[in-house]
Here is the input.
Amino acid sequence: MSQNFDLDDDLLPEYDFAKMTVVARGPGRKTSGLKVDIEPDVAVLFPNAEAVNEGLRLLIRLIEKNSPLPNEEILTSFKA
Here is the structure.
């Protein structure tokens, strides 16, 4: 069976698929990092991932600086 395809582009300019973004759905989609929910009162001070990460890194440095334990033991306790 022979099929003839019309290769002329007859799409209207309104249908510009070059600008279309692909939205991945389902269990196979890629994620970037760990996702957690934060309470609204915390979100006021930490409105995005960058602010949350900066705050947590500061907390880690403060714990390391003020802890009597060696840094290796502190980091091990965080992973538990």
User: Anything to note?
Assistant: Residues 27 and 71 are 37 Å apart (CA to CA). The mean pLDDT is 76. The first helix runs from residue 40 to 45.
